[in-house]
Design brief:
The structure holds 2 protein chains of 2 kinds.
Chain A lengths: L2 H18 L2 H23 L7 H24 L2 H8 L2 H5 L5 H33 L4 H28 L3 H25 L5 E10 L2 H5 L22 E10 L12 H8 L16 H14 L6 E2 L21 H22 L15
Parallel strand pairs in A: 1-3
Antiparallel strand pairs in A: 1-2
Helix pairs in contact in A: 1-6, 2-3, 2-6, 3-6, 3-7, 3-8, 3-10, 4-7, 6-7, 6-12, 7-8, 7-10, 7-12, 10-11, 10-12
Chain B lengths: L1 H7 L13 E10 L2 E11 L4 E5 L6 H8 L7 E6 L8 H7 E4 L11 H11 L4 H14 L15 H13 L5 E5 L7 H16 L3 E5 L3 H7 L2 E6 L2 E7 L2 H4 L3 E8 L2 H10 L4 E4 L2 E7 L1 H13 L4 E6 L3 H9 L5
Parallel strand pairs in B: 3-7, 3-8, 5-6, 6-7
Antiparallel strand pairs in B: 1-2, 1-4, 8-9, 10-12, 10-13, 11-12
Helix pairs in contact in B: 4-5
Classes of the chains: A mainly alpha, B alpha/beta.
């Protein structure tokens, strides 16, 4: 692998793409779409009392990530087998370019295009930063994480494009792979709750069953008008058996999700204080939820002695663990490196075995 | 060129032998249950043009893919300028120029950009790449097409671009798969001249083709393959050709007299449109036959071999085909 080789391939790819696709129109549509959604969100959410900034930031970031997940795989998912079909891959393979030059060159060029899309949407991220009190570091940090996730997406598409002979097959597989990361991780997480739940004794502070049993009832068992309403004074420290879900055993599914990684990586948030609620903030909610899932089953006493009176114990804030995005970044780094390694291996020549229907030249 | 060739010799202690050119020994390659190349052996020497001829599906393209370091043979050995394409692909790639059959090209790039890219892929710097590109454009008369996009080129023009691509790094071994297909007559003649001058520079040239008459004019030797096997390897040498039995075609202003003369002299003949064809054992006999005909006052307007020696050998080698 050499810089000269990578630059040669990346330059070739970029020149090809720049001239064969209608990028100005695609980028304009992308810009208008992101602009429209951001503007409408701003109009809907910005009031004198609540700044729309944090919400705007969340909405725009997720929109850009979601749209990128649709666009970016198409940049690489047919890259290698498409070149093979067009008969131009072997032309490069018989030169002094190494398979690593070819694959890394393709990766760099497709990532560069993905970054152009990100760049086009950045005015809105910066607007959101200005509109609400979001730190500059947060914007830069999230942009870096987004850019990294997009690079991994490119690598996954590239790997699939070396695995199948037909471009349709690799495109479908790449989208399925992305769906697996985006939806599959969340679905599997929630569906595997039954695997990690136990009947356990949990502590709670509330009204004992004996209180209800001591109340007079009508003949048909319905509460009698003579029944007394419980007060704080009736609350006791008690235990009961409950289904406890040990999400600390399956939390690692969540940082495999690109949205969770991006949401959790956004720094500078007061995550534990749910009362400071300033509107719809999906990233914040996801981050809180994912960290709580990692912390797992809550060993604290349940506070059920709420009667709406001042001085009642407030609902406990969700359990927190350390940030989970480093795990996500490590997973994506391994995934991207693995995909790139596989793609390089699959582009090596001379080949011994040819899959059915594969052409070399 | 001599400097180049001494540079190609591997350092002592390498596994490569000092022999230049292409050496193929008992190579075999199957794709699943389909045996594309069964047992091909051939030698192509530096300074010669070697023709690889055979019917469709004979294994020519598969053999060239193995020579071009893209495919590993199941069995047998290949040496290109003494290097093994399987274990030393880098060494081989630096020395070969491969022009595939029916290749594609990057549609959006101009001819000049394609050549710049390939030159860069051979690790040439920008200055050297530009110089080589201009030299090759000149050599192959592609100058006026240089700024056209590859997409708009005709098939023959694409073929010339393919040849240019194969020559950009001044390889010592040329592997050309059907280089003449789609070329107009002038381009064919130019191709022939280019190949002859390359051979004269000491390069090894292996050309696969169907156009036997073209090959006969350019090739020094021919290797005939059929059903994945080498059936014959022959020198297209003037001395040898002179003694081979071949068909000659005779056209006369007196066709009836010609036929009765042949009949009277017990020369077997068959009618071919207005002409007749006779089997003659070599140039010597042909010359005598012509002299006899003219001496007997038969007005001959044309007297020429009806098929080339290569064509005859090819037809003989492949006649068992269904």
């Amino acid at each position: 692998m050499s810089l000269h080789g990578i630059r040669t391939v990346a330059g070739l790819e970029l020149k090809q793409r720049a001239r064969t696709s209608r990028w100005p129109i695609v980028l304009l549509l992308w810009f208008l779409f992101v602009a429209g959604v951001t503007f409408l969100s701003y109009k809907a959410l910005n009031t004198a009392a609540i700044k729309a900034g944090p919400t705007l930031y969340d909405v725009t970031t997720f929109l850009v990530l979601g749209l990128s997940m649709l666009v970016v795989p198409s940049l690489t998912a047919t890259s290698v087998n498409g070149d093979r079909e067009a008969g131009v891959l072997a032309t490069l393979q018989t030169t002094l370019l190494t398979p690593a030059d070819i694959i890394v060159g393709k990766l760099v060029s497709s990532w560069a295009i993905a970054l152009v899309f990100l760049g086009v949407s950045s005015p809105f991220l910066i607007w959101a930063w200005i509109a609400g009190g979001i730190g500059f570091g947060q914007v830069v940090g999230s942009l870096l994480v987004l850019a990294f996730v997009l690079a991994v997406t490119c690598a996954i598409g590239l790997a699939f494009s070396t695995l199948t002979a037909r471009t349709v097959a690799s495109a479908v597989l790449t989208y399925l792979g992305m769906a697996g990361l985006v939806f599959g991780t969340v679905i599997v997480f929630f569906m595997s709750f039954f695997l990690v739940q136990n009947r356990e004794q949990v502590r709670y502070y509330g009204i004992p069953d004996s209180f209800w049993q001591s109340q007079p009832t009508n003949a048909d068992g319905s509460p009698s008008p003579d029944a007394v309403v419980p007060t704080v004074g009736d609350c006791r420290h008690l235990t009961r058996e409950e289904n406890v879900i040990h999400t600390e055993r399956i939390w690692w599914l969540l940082p495999m999700n690109p949205f969770v990684v991006v949401a959790d990586a956004a720094p500078g948030r007061v995550l534990t204080n749910r009362d400071v609620y300033t509107g719809f903030q999906p990233m914040r909610e996801i981050s809180i939820g994912a960290r709580a899932a990692r912390a797992g089953a809550d060993p604290r006493e349940r506070q059920e002695c709420n009667f709406g009176n001042p001085g009642d114990p407030a609902e406990l804030p969700p359990l927190q663990s350390g940030p989970i995005y480093p795990y996500g970044l490590a997973f994506y780094l391994a995934l991207g490196a693995g995909a790139t390694w596989l793609a390089i291996r699959r582009t090596r020549t001379p080949v011994t075995r040819l899959p059915n229907g594969t052409r070399i030249a | 060129m001599t400097g180049d060739q001494s540079a190609q010799q591997p350092a002592s202690g390498g596994t490569a032998t000092a022999v230049g050119g292409i050496e193929v020994a008992s190579v075999r390659r199957a794709f699943g249950s389909v045996l594309a190349v069964d047992d091909i052996s051939l030698t192509a020497r530096p300074g010669e043009v070697t023709a690889l001829v055979g019917p469709n599906g004979a294994g020519k393209t598969t053999l060239l893919l193995m020579l071009a370091t893209l495919l590993v043979p199941d069995h047998g050995t290949i040496r290109i300028d003494g290097f093994d394409p399987v274990t030393q692909p880098g060494e081989v790639r630096a020395r070969i120029g491969w022009m595939p059959d029916g290749f594609g090209t990057w549609d959006a790039l101009t001819v000049r950009e394609v050549l710049h890219t390939i030159a860069a892929a051979y690790r040439m710097g920008p200055v050297e790449a530009r110089a080589r590109t201009e030299a090759i454009l000149e050599l192959l008369h592609l100058g006026d097409l240089a700024d056209r996009r590859a997409r708009v080129l005709s098939r023959g023009q694409k073929q010339r671009l393919g040849l240019a691509r194969a020559l950009i790094h001044d390889p010592s071994v040329l592997l050309l798969d059907e280089p003449a297909s789609g070329l107009d007559p002038r381009s064919r003649i130019e191709l022939r001249d280019v190949l002859r001058s390359m051979a004269a520079e000491g390069k090894t040239i292996l050309v696969s083709s169907h156009i036997l008459t073209e090959l006969q004019e350019v090739a020094d030797r021919a290797v005939i393959v059929a059903r994945g096997r080498t059936t014959e390897s022959q020198t297209l040498d003037a001395v040898e050709l002179a003694t081979t039995v071949g068909s000659w075609r005779i056209t006369s202003l007196d066709p009836d007299r010609l036929r009765s003369w042949l009949h009277d002299h017990h020369v077997p003949w068959r009618a071919e449109l207005a002409a007749v064809e006779v089997e003659v054992g070599g140039d010597e006999q042909a010359a005598r036959l012509l002299a006899d005909l003219v001496a007997d006052g038969i007005r001959i307007t044309a007297f020429a071999p009806s098929q080339g020696a290569l064509e005859a050998a090819y037809l003989a080698a492949t006649e068992d085909r269904q």
